[in-house]
């Protein structure tokens, strides 16, 4: 999956109702794609290329693992313990990913 496909998938699956009043910045360091950060603010999502200077949480993984987590095909704890995902910062924000991006099943 290329960067454009990943971004489109995230935008497609984003659930503004699940975001509620959340204001957070997620930094993604993906081994097989360019780095991006997501800003969730006021129920809206914006996706930016590159690094954010002060993300609330940084998630390091590969694209397939990230998508599997979002689609609830992979248990987050298993991914963490198995070394498929590394999280720095607010782990609670990382745990919210499946709900934030669970709007549509695809």
Automatic annotation (TrEMBL):
Start and end residues of each SCP2 domain: 15-101
Protein name: SCP2 sterol-binding domain-containing protein
